[in-house]
Write a structure and sequence with these properties.
Elements lengths: L2 H20 L2 H4 L25 E6 L6 H9 L5 E9 L10 E4 H6 L1 H14 L2 E5 L13 H10 L3 E6 L7 H7 L12 H21 L3 E3 L12 E2 L6 H4 L12 E4 L4 H4 L1 H13 L4 E4 L8 H6 L3 E3 L9 H8 L3 E4 L3 H11 L5 E3 L5 H10 L1 H9 L1 H8 L3 H11 L10
Parallel strand pairs: 1-2, 1-4, 2-3, 4-5, 5-6, 6-7, 8-9, 8-10, 10-11, 11-12
Helix pairs in contact: 1-5, 13-17
Length: 409
């Protein structure tokens, strides 16, 4: 594509968004492509702020229900009320959210965008923007920097929360980890280039804004050293199960990749299929499962396989640990070290790489008692690091920076 055509497309896109922003939805319906059309009845009322001195709005990603979970964590602090938002697609995982807006409305309703912007600007004291994505739809042409500056001009404190590919530099990661999904001769270079561009754009945005930045996994501190780790949050009670693990000769091994490419599924699945054919394990891969179904699936497993390419542990691992399942994954030394330094605890996750996974699984089957003790440490670790209290304390300085009141939880 020539630079002239690219400029023309950008200009047309800007004109389109500004038209949607400026006029009522009833007048702009004909401008929307089929995938972005909606009825006027689909447009919800703007978000209502909570009744609290400190009022936090968290939007717009809610990946793995983390926007919702961070809202509940923030509310553990004195005087804090929180609301999270999620644009809802026709098909999604059904994660809980405080405020839902249909995806076509969120991305192309000028009426909703204007009302939502005013409601947040007037009603909230703090905003956490997830994944550096716009929270006001077509308002400000979807420009996050303009959104942040508009909010700060109205006295609203803003911070950014990075979840992963929005900040991670692929080439940095590929240089650091042999199993990186961003390296190798067969990798899709266009995909890597797109991710690199997004990450660079968001790092530049963070530098210009100078607002606090949180990351949900310590590995992202390599991309933004000044950030602070904000651990992902789960409700331990939702995942707790009384069933024990590794009680049969053929353990059930579950792998639930939300993104097989970045989870390293292709690296480990041949190993697991071979072990299953040999009768060593019962291997089960599940995808596109509703969130409400996951507790039952974990309860029926002995071992949960998580990340083998990024060197991190994700919400999948946390949920599985809360369920008392034995988690096997590849964690980088940097991640393990940072967690131990900050929390004083070791993640009870069995280390394996694609090269060592077969031998690790064989060892687990041969020595179930030893690994059962590791699995039994999972709920304790989750309660200490990932139940929301730790994350609330991480957010405390941001949410109570200007409070002269008692800040006890």
């Amino acid at each position: 594509m020539s630079s002239a055509v690219a400029r023309l497309r950008r200009t047309a896109g800007t004109t389109y968004r500004r038209t949607l922003e400026a006029f009522p939805d009833a007048l702009t319906a004909w401008l929307r492509p089929p995938g972005r059309r909606f009825s006027l009845a689909d447009v919800p009322a703007p978000v209502e702020p909570p009744d609290a001195p400190v009022r936090v709005f968290i939007a717009p990603a809610n990946f793995a229900a983390q926007g919702y979970a961070f809202a509940r964590a923030a509310e553990r602090l004195h005087g804090v009320g929180a609301v999270n938002m999620q644009p809802r697609a026709a098909q999604d995982f059904g994660f809980p959210a405080d405020y839902n807006v249909p995806w076509p409305v969120a991305v192309s309703s000028g009426t909703w965008a204007r009302r939502q912007r005013e409601a947040v600007g007037r009603g909230f004291t703090h905003v956490l923007i997830e994944a550096e994505r716009p929270i006001f739809g077509v308002a400000f042409d979807g420009d996050v920097e303009r959104e942040v500056r508009w909010l700060r001009e109205r006295g609203v404190s803003v911070a950014l929360v990075s979840h992963g590919t929005d900040l991670r530099a692929p080439h940095r990661h590929a240089d650091a980890d042999k199993w990186s999904p961003f390296g190798g001769e067969e990798i899709d270079q266009q995909w890597v280039a797109r991710l690199e561009s997004v990450a660079q754009r968001n790092r530049s945005l963070g530098e210009r804004l100078g607002v606090p930045l949180y990351v949900v996994t310590p590995e992202l501190l390599l991309d933004w050293p000044a950030a602070q780790w904000l651990p992902n949050v789960v409700d331990p009670a939702r995942w707790a199960t009384a069933s024990d693990v590794l009680t049969s000769d053929r353990p059930v091994v579950l792998h639930a990749p939300t993104s097989p490419k970045v989870k390293g599924t292709a690296l480990i699945e041949p190993v697991m299929l071979r072990l299953a054919e040999q009768g060593v394990v019962d291997y089960r891969r599940v995808e596109n499962v509703a969130a409400d179904e996951m507790p039952r699936l974990y309860a029926g497993a002995d071992i949960v396989l998580d990340q083998f390419a990024l060197g991190i542990y994700s919400t999948t691992s946390i949920e599985a640990m809360a369920s008392g399942r034995l988690v096997v994954a590849h964690l980088s030394d940097q991640v393990r070290s940072h967690v131990k330094t900050v929390t004083g605890m070791e993640p009870p996750i069995v280390e394996a790489t694609p090269d060592t996974l077969a031998s690790v699984i064989h060892d687990i089957v041969t020595n179930p008692d030893r690994y059962r003790r590791s699995a039994n440490l999972g709920p304790q670790y989750v309660a200490a690091v990932h139940d929301g209290e730790f994350s609330a304390q991480v957010l405390r300085p941001f949410l109570h920076a200007d409070a002269g009141e008692d800040q006890s939880a």
